Amino acid sequence: MEFLRNSSLWALQILLLYFFAFVSNNGGVDASHKVYMHLQSTSSANVKNVHRTGYHFQPPKNWINGPMYYNGVYHLFYQYNPKGAVWGNIVWAHSVSTDLINWIPLEPAIYPSKIFDKFGTWSGSATILPGNKPIILYTGIIDANRTQVQNYAIPANLSDPYLRKWIKPDNNPLIVADMSINKTQFRDPTTAWMGRDGHWRILVGSVRNHRGKAILYRSKDFMKWTKAKHPLHTATNTGNWECPDFFPVSLKHTNGLDTSYNGEYIKHVLKVSLDVTRFEYYTVGTYDTKKDRYIPDNTSVDGWKGLRLDYGNYYASKSFYDPSKNRRIMLGWANESDTVDDDVRKGWAGVHPIPRKLWLDPSGKQLVQWPVKELETLRKEKVQLSNHKLYKGEKIEVKGITVAQADVEVTFSFASLDKAEPFDPSWADLYAQDVCFIKGSTVQGGLGPFGLITLASKNLEEYTPVFFRVFKAQDKYKVLMCSDASRSTLKNETTMYKPSFAGYVDVDLAYKKLSLRSLIDNSVVESFGAGGKTCITSRVYPTLAIFDKAHLFAFNNGTEAITIETLNAWSMADAKLH
Prior knowledge:
This is Beta-fructofuranosidase, insoluble isoenzyme 1 isoform X1. By secondary structure, the protein is mainly beta.
């Protein structure tokens, strides 16, 4: 929701995360917007706090999944079920913050009430119009068949710094699907940007014949929208595109850019959430402003084999430009990995990973992400370790902090790459997650596995390791990063989704160092490898490794000795989340 015009206006952005992905008994993930009619209004009076987060945002109870920056205030609009811990009865709940970490709850901003959204108010984005006037575009559901239209809402009182009340004018909907569009898969309008011709543009996600689409619309006045002859971009065999996000990034610096920026030395990023896989993918490329076409670079792949913002529990994200600090911020949603029945019993479901600053890597090939600096205000007791060598099979415990709610930064180094294991050519067609399953933390290697063992019980009956393993593949090295939840809990195997999440890290090993940062928060392990080049968020539910019974270790299970050059770890205070 950004806009820049005559250097006097900028747009702000809102993210309405509305998805959920609950685990089925076979370890898979249910489709989005699945309705549990018998559970959606089940009371959550007795909220269980064993796995509730201390500094990751979540409401006091029930289901969430679910942000805008306006006049000095960050707005988090999230879809919330006030009556139960599963998807249903959805309203747009609303919280505000001045630092992206501590939040004040307000009354719901939007809820189904008109003929154009009677059956649902789903995701959308916001734009600041001339005169510093915010406007929200959102997807409305108009019938029981889930026919989707694009509506708008405006603040009732611009003088209210928190924008508590929103109005949905009667000239909605603004955009209705034509005959070429699947009406039931037509949603999530993006932040608008202004082209050089003075016309606004937005994208709406859709699919046709298994081809994902970012459908392009243009408007002079933001009220009358015309579909372009061709989408901004499409890709075969990718299924429905949800929550598209399209924004520029600088080739020269790490500062953020307004969505309407069209100067020199930039690339564009197109991110989509794939309904089929429940993961998010992005490409880096060029936006042809004359043809209104986006062309991914030859180093970016559309679809399942492409780059991901996060290789774990992370979906339905949206970025926004923060003009107060000249940065682009990404916010996402982390679903639960236990069952729907577990969610009802504990009385809540869904958390938000920590907001991340993002920028383009100097290589120009990928994004880099890092927790916003404001998070550091929650750091309390600190412990340090330096120049400690770990030989094969060794580990060292990190003590003196609340390890179940901590922020840990560590840099590992090694003397040689010679012991890196050969990369099996048969793995070339496997996903990183599959290789991590084969080569877990207990499988001895050459250079690695080494890293952190988080949320561990005293005798390691439960633990979630986050680690690296280096392979030698023909003419280059491949660095695998894993966050393995397979041993995270003693709860019944058949009712838990405990994947070995993983991604490869595109990093130069000339200095023979790898860094890792893990944000540990009771049921969340959010990790950033090599300064944020690869990110993995895991949801875990230990039964023994909880509160002061949790342990934290650094370990090495490779034949090459590893040196902990520096390890800094902090206890984390609770954020003010409600």
